[in-house]
Recover the amino acids of this structure.
């Protein structure tokens, strides 16, 4: 079939919305009519070349939601009509890590930066080229074929255009504070960058009982929004917050620091920010990990990332779309899609 997708042909480069050929779902795969996708900063890193794609052209996007319209041979967990959100790490359910309840470390995660499907072939094609997808997903498309292992079925009463945010930003941010950072009641938490991930880290810290949540972001609107989401105070820079942090912690620094400020350098890491036994949780661009500009000891302080995609479902379903967290309020901009009118009758707001 033919569908439209936002394709990146070169990096750095711009997304080009164009018609592409989409294959039928193969064994273990399903065809999904997409309803919504978020734009994560990781997608921006791909188009800017901060995260060089393994294969070009590529359709990125990993924060999507939609409705299963067709199932391929051998699919056992999904059926036509199911509502799904994407998972940027597949969960095979069988490897050592999945068996231990850590599906965020599933062995199949080794494939998410490669670009092809699990069987090594591509489902999208244009102008004589195979088109890669990021994270085995590629949600920047109106229709897409996914492995069933990369999808999480959700209840049909959850609005799909809100649920898509849970596929990355909500669970990454919430999990960075609640799980990787292990925020405890009474902790002083510093969140650098309150965009898609950081705003949810604020909420994860709030739900974990932090006594003080200090948000730092140079954008004035985000400083204000952070207060609505549970930050107890917000500042435009570390320099503005430094005295206050010292006063709150007897000069010892925060208990937990969550870094989500996109490209992170040493100016944001370590030093007087946190107390000696404090915990770091970071969601970062490439610089911290791959260019080695940060203290490598930080790596050892991160026992787990994020929330497990499937066991994380209570977070996804109860805390976020229905509970105390506010993904619905967390959509800074909505871009109308060509197909919006078509979907309106499916998901009236
Ligand atoms: N699982 C993962 O590892 C994972 C998942 C999602 C995002 N990420 C990464 O996390 C980072 C954040 O993603 P996002 O979607 O939230 O991005 P975003 O653009 O929505 O948010 C980043 C925020 O950082 C702020 N900022 C910029 N410079 C700053 C500074 N010096 N101090 C404080 N704040 C600053 C920006 O104003 C913005 O609000 C990206 O690098 C992204 O690739 C990782
Ligand atoms: Zn993301
Ligand atoms: Zn697995």
């Amino acid at each position: 079939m033919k569908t439209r997708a936002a394709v990146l042909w070169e990096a750095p480069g711009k997304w080009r919305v164009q018609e592409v050929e989409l294959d039928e779902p193969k064994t273990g795969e399903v065809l999904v009519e997409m309803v919504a996708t978020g734009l994560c900063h990781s997608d921006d890193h791909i188009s800017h070349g901060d995260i060089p794609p393994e294969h070009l052209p590529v359709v990125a996007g990993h924060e999507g939601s939609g409705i299963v319209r067709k199932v391929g041979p051998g699919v056992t967990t999904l059926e036509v009509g199911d509502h799904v959100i994407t998972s940027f790490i597949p969960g095979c359910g069988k490897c050592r890590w999945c068996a231990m309840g850590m599906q965020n470390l599933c062995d199949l995660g080794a494939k998410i930066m490669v670009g092809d499907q699990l069987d090594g072939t591509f489902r999208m094609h244009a102008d004589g080229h195979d088109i890669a997808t990021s994270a085995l997903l590629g949600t920047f498309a109106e229709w897409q074929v996914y492995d069933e292992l990369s999808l999480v079925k959700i209840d049909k009463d959850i609005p799909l255009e809100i649920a898509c945010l849970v596929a990355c930003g909500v669970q990454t941010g919430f999990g960075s504070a609640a799980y990787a950072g292990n925020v405890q009641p009474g902790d002083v938490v510093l969140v650098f960058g309150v965009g898609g991930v950081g705003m949810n880290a604020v909420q994860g810290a709030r739900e974990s009982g932090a006594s003080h949540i200090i948000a730092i972001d140079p954008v004035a609107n985000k400083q204000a929004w952070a207060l609505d989401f549970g930050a107890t105070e917000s500042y435009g820079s570390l320099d503005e917050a430094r005295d206050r942090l010292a006063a709150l912690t007897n000069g010892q620094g925060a208990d937990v620091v969550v870094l989500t400020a996109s490209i992170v350098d040493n100016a944001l890491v370590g030093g007087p920010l946190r107390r000696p036994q404090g915990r770091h949780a970071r969601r970062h661009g490439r610089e911290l990990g791959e260019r080695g500009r940060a203290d490598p000891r930080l790596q050892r302080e991160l026992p787990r990332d994020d929330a497990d995609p499937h066991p994380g479902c209570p977070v996804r379903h109860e805390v976020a779309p229905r509970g105390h967290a506010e993904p619905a309020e967390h959509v800074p901009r909505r871009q109308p899609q060509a197909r919006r009118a078509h979907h309106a009758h499916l998901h009236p707001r």
Observations:
- The longest strand covers residues 29-37.
- Residues 40-42, 45, 168-169, 172, 192-198, 216-219, 222, 260-262, 283-285, 306 surround nicotinamide-adenine-dinucleotide (ligand 1) (CB under 6 Å).
- The radius of gyration is 20 Å.
- Residues 2-167+332-344 form a domain with the Quinone Oxidoreductase; Chain A, domain 1 fold (CATH 3.90.180.10).
